[in-house]
Amino acid sequence: MIERTSENDVENRNVIPVTLDANFFFERAVRSLDRFQYDKALKNFRKAVEYEPENPVNHCNMAGILSEMGKYEASNDILTHVLEEIDPSMTECHFYMANNYANMESFEEAERSLVTYLQEDANGEFIAESEELMELLQYELNRPAPLVRIRSREGVVEHDRARSLLEEGKFPQAVALLEEIVQNIPDFLAAHNNLALAYFYMGRFAKAKECLGEVLAQDPGNLHALCNMAIFLQYAGDREQLDGLVRMLEATVPFHQEHVFKMATTMGILGKHKTAYGHFRRLLKDEEVGGDASLYHYCAAAASNSGFVSEAVRCWQLAAKLDPESVVPKFFLSQLQLAQAEGRPLPPVSYNYQLPFQEQLKQWKNNMDSFSEEVRNNPLLRASFFWALRYGDSSTKLQVTEALRWIGDDEMSEVLKGISEQEPLQETALLGLQRLIGGAPEESTIQRAVQEPGVPGHKGLPEWKEDWQRVIDHTAAVMERRYDAVLKKDAELLWKQFISRLYPDVPLFRHTEGWCAALEYLTAKLHSHPLTYREAAQRYGVSVSMVSRYARRIHQVCGFPQDGAAADILPPFTENI
């Protein structure tokens, strides 16, 4: 470092130090460039190189000036020196050299340098410019370049394919492809995020959290990972971690369109409908997506769930105008008008741009061929079914498994088999899955576990008491001639779910007949079989009030939706790149 002062400055004690270092000459070079004084700029960049000869950026700046001055060979000499002597990882030097060669009309050398850049550079900073230069070289050489791979785009095609598989509900295939991608490209964070989603869809919760942990270790502010983690924590019931994360997300205002959409859908899934509504409103102001009918439905759902009735009506009316062939906006508008006429609020609205599950079931029951075709051709519906089987409440699971019995689809059976083999499997879905993949309901995994001596009657429970089993046995005996094996098994599964959720604080069941009556009543209702409290009470010789009280208790513990409708099973959206 050198400081220059004049004698007069010393005498007058007005000392102004001038620090002569690489940065000083760099700034002077930039000022010269702004004035198009290339000779002065080159001179100052040379001085910067003298002060910091090991800094490759200074050399590249000097090479850039030489290129601007038309001294392409001299520029390439410097760039070659950088690659060979200073920093071989400066792969962008190959791109600069390719441009210099092209300007010299040395197209073979330009192609060689450009191919080297594309195959070695991991960041892809000049990928768009490289495509333009590649087109020029192909035209001049009258042949395609011998390009084997583009390193910065590795895994992109495979990742797009994996996203499609996820959105089609083909989870095992998506997992296999995504696992291969992240193994080969560990820093491909979008692939990690989507792999976490795929694990989650299949019930592999520990693997899903582990995958997101790897993303957040590399990028603590990764919005997709944070949103996915919030959804995972909600389904795991981890309120302590979830509350802090949700507060942070609610205070976040994303900028990019995809991030706004991710945040909006996440808030909707988490039940933060007012926050979701705000983000959907922002998206509707974007001209690129503002004409999407489904987006207006999302905004209407968020508005309705937030109590903003007039805004919900406006959004559904616009959705109907944009998509006149869809029955979805018209259905919700009619439901909203009916609710207003009856002076009651509209039940929670699903964000899925399709009719509610119960409404679709009514239509499909009258036309099973139409249902089979819809499931095969609607990836979102397939994904929603698998999502419901894994994470829905007991009512939703029973409805989905009942619906899926109507179709015989090899691909769906394969996926369901994969779901049934994952841990932890919620038992309410197990019977339906076994029916769909060819298992015998009379000899299910749960049934065998109960029959084997010394084996707990429910996964995760260290014991299975006699009075718990007595309810199952007595209910099955009374239901014997009235229902098929499916309903009897579902009653058993419902009771085991009830016990497992109460455990370890399971009370002593003194009124076995009352619990049996409540169990049969709820099972019949879940399968849409007509049965009143009075009829159930008469069958088991107990009072109507006892059946009602015990049924409400099972209802509260197992969490059935009040109206029997399927829960909102909108899955998290996959991440693009």
From TrEMBL:
Database matches in Pfam families: TPR_19
Coiled coil: none
TPR repeats: 22-55, 189-222
SUPFAM superfamilies (UniProt xref): TPR-like
UniProt keyword annotations, A-Z: Repeat, TPR repeat
Matches recorded under Gene3D superfamilies: Tetratricopeptide repeat domain (1.25.40.10)
UniProt name for this protein: Tetratricopeptide (TPR) repeat
